[in-house]
Amino acid sequence: MASSPSNMRQILCWRSLFRDFQNHKPQRRSLVTIQRGPVQKLDLPPDLPKQYWSQLPARLRPDQGKREIIIHKPIPSRAQTCKDPVSEVSSSQMALLDPTGARKRLFDYKNPEGVKVGDILHTTFKTGEPFSGVVMSIKSRGVDTSVLLRNHLTRIGTEMQVKVFSPLVQSMEVAQKALKRKRRARLYYLRKPKHDIGSVDKIVAQYLRQRALLMGGKAKGVGAGRLRPSKKK
């Protein structure tokens, strides 16, 4: 006898097929764990024969004494021995680069005869030609102290940043002091044509000639030779 369409739908329905599998769940056995207290360690018998000592671990052998734990002293912290490392490094570098302290006094703002903005400074180097110019600014930063000089070379404004404590700097001399104390700490307005003082080679040459006469030698430097007279036409 042919099955009805309703029975066909029930057989072909996926829910009816998986319904039997869901009802048959596998049986699970519960495992009961035996609760027990901590394991008690048994002490070795005091009269254990020596022939059995080799079978025991080294830490349980009666002939092995207790190992002493060596506690080393902590290494002293750098933060306690050297609380300000930057100042110590700068002071050591200062003693190496300026052992006499003359250059430090030259750029000390408390020194009335020191270098100020507006002065004309003559700087010589161990390698290369000397450079002279007007002091436009001074940056006091310990070992990294620098000064900005301005001069005219071949009618072109030239500026140079010179490290005061650099090992390449041989000497620094004040060729001319400013007539009046400047009201600014940085004379950047000298870059404008209205306030530019031009070349300072003649002033430096005159200073070098006067120094040579006082020391009894010949002047050396920028424009140190005699000025040639102009030829008459």
From TrEMBL:
One of its GO terms (biological process) is translation. Keywords: Ribonucleoprotein, Ribosomal protein. The keyword Glycoprotein does not apply. One of its GO terms (cellular component) is mitochondrial large ribosomal subunit. One of its GO terms (molecular function) is structural constituent of ribosome. Coiled coil: none annotated. The keyword Glycoprotein does not apply. Belongs to the bacterial ribosomal protein bL19 family. This is Ribosomal protein L19. It comes from Endocarpon pusillum (strain Z07020 / HMAS-L-300199).
